[in-house]
Amino acid sequence: MGEVDTDPRFQDALMALAKAVANATATLVLKAKNVASKAEDPAMQNKVIASATQTALSTSQLVACTKVVAPTISHPACQEQLIDAAKLVAKSVEKTVDSSQMATHDEFLLKDLGAAATQVTQALNDLLQHIKQASKAKGGEQYEDHCDTIISASDRLFASMGNASDMIKQAKILAEATSHLVNSIKTSADTTDDTDSQKRLLGAAKVLADATARMVEAAKGCAVNPHDSDEQENLRKAAEDLRAATNAAAGNAIKKKLVGKLENAAKHAAAVATQTIAASQAASSSNKNPSSQQQLVSSCKHVADHIPRLVQGVRGSRAQPDSPSAQLLLINASQEFISPANNMNSAAKAAVPTVSDQAASMQLSNCSKQLAQALAELRSAAQKAQDACGPLEIDSALDTICQLDSDLVEIKKSAAQGQLVPLPDESGEQCAQELGHTSKTVGASMAQLLTAAAQGNENYTGLAARDTANALRTLTGAVRGVAAATSDRQAQDHLIDTARDVMDKSVNLIEEAKKAVNDPNNPDNQQRLAQVAKAVSHALNNCVNCLPGQRDVDFAIRNIGEASKALLSGQHPSNDQARTDEYRTSLKR
């Protein structure tokens, strides 16, 4: 009826829950017998005994059914059969309780019986919840299997450009896999109780079905004109759209798969590179060519500097699988690792013939071959992960700015507790200068962001968002330094609050830029971007105006303005000639 479940622990847990139902039912039957022994009416006594016997029989059938369907519990028919058996037990328990209440009015006996019945109900609920988990687990496995097929088939289709027959063959595999995925998503929608989730799943299934239909049409066009490069390009684009639709429909399953493959490739490349460095060090004493050995040592040091960042990227991605910042860090670390590792590999290959120790030479040669293969896999995995994730700079910048806002909250707490102190070699004047300079850098980065977003250029918008986030990180450090250098609590809070307002307005700006990039033809883009940019500029000015020297200047300007208003309104002192002569005499002195 279904495939054997590969996880024996799930089957063991299922059997344990069925046995828990049996144990709870046994207790209930004993309590029912106690009620029957106290019943005065023989007819009611027999009714209690009959209902208790039926409960025991239903439970034994449930246990037997569990043993039979446990290996194939992932199949819907097996789940339905087991659920029906559980419902029979529940009905039998209900009849037992009803007959017992009719047979006696002994509160003590009925209380014990009710407690036992509650235990049976709880055990049945636990069993049913476990069965639902089997359905969800199977759905997830089906998603993964179909997504694996779609990834492999689409990769082969992309690689077959120029060979129409192979492209059509892979298109057929793609269509079959996506058809199965659509059915799996619809099944998940039918089994969920959440209306919103059901609508979302059905909507995703429709989008995926439409993308599949478009790819099939493109494949038909390619079959009719196999030598037409435009038809092949149309099929390739349709396959790309189908892959993107699959990723969205399956809850980013493809992206997670590809990022997982990159994590494994990066971990393997770091390990092989470490082995190559060790092999290079072992061969140093027997290398007859000092020049090649020096080049190898230099390249090994360069790679050794990159390995920690690559390992950190893998750890960060695994610790935060849904974080765009962690994914971007892993992709960048992988791409930056490839070039120095290739240089080291070339140096290792060049050094192999000049190593006199045969064992060391063979070890270095083997490590070099393994490293070349590992780097090829890493390059491919990094490119695929980058294509699947899309430009991550914008999302990463948003994550960074939100984290900076959280840092400012902690800084404010430290200031309130009197624990905010300057860092070593940090002065208030230096931080104030840095704050003023960084505010200009933030303004310049945001100007680039606005220009790129208005043009709909996603890559440049992402780079500008990244530069903005980096400038805001520097600004946050400067705000901390200025706040730590002053003992005025009101000034500290005001400065930190204005800095948080800068972060809030910056998030709004980057989100609007992201919307503009995703919808470049929207005529309202320019107006919305201008509005949020003005708010950021105003927030930056407020932050800079909190600097100690700037506050004094602003205070003087306000006083001059107030005095000017008073003079213009005629509210000046009366003209006293004697006092005027006195002032003139004092000035001459």
Describe this protein's structure.
The model is unreliable at 1-6 and 136-141 (pLDDT under 50). The protein is mainly alpha-helical and 589 residues long. Helix content is 85%, strand content 0%. The protein is built from 18 helices and no strands.
State the low-pLDDT regions, or none. Answer: 1-6, 136-141
Number of strands: 0
What general outline do the C-alpha atoms trace?
extended
Q: In DSSP terms, counting alpha (H) and pi (I) runs of 4 or more, how many helices?
A: 18
Radius of gyration: 37 Å
Bin the strand percentage: under 5%
The run of helices and strands is HHHHHHHHHHHHHHHHHH
Which terms would index this structure?
589 residues; extended; 85% helix; mainly alpha
Summarize the structure.
This protein is mostly helical and 589 residues long. The chain has helices at 8-38, 42-69, 76-103, 107-159, 164-191, 195-224, 229-249, 253-283, 290-319, 324-351, 358-389, 393-416, 428-455, 458-485, 489-518, 525-544, 548-568, 577-588.
List the helices and strands and how they pair.
Elements: H1 8-38, H2 42-69, H3 76-103, H4 107-159, H5 164-191, H6 195-224, H7 229-249, H8 253-283, H9 290-319, H10 324-351, H11 358-389, H12 393-416, H13 428-455, H14 458-485, H15 489-518, H16 525-544, H17 548-568, H18 577-588
Helix pairs in contact: 1-2, 1-3, 1-4, 2-3, 3-4, 4-5, 4-7, 5-6, 5-7, 6-7, 8-9, 8-10, 8-11, 9-10, 10-11, 10-12, 12-14, 12-15, 13-14, 13-15, 13-16, 14-15, 15-16
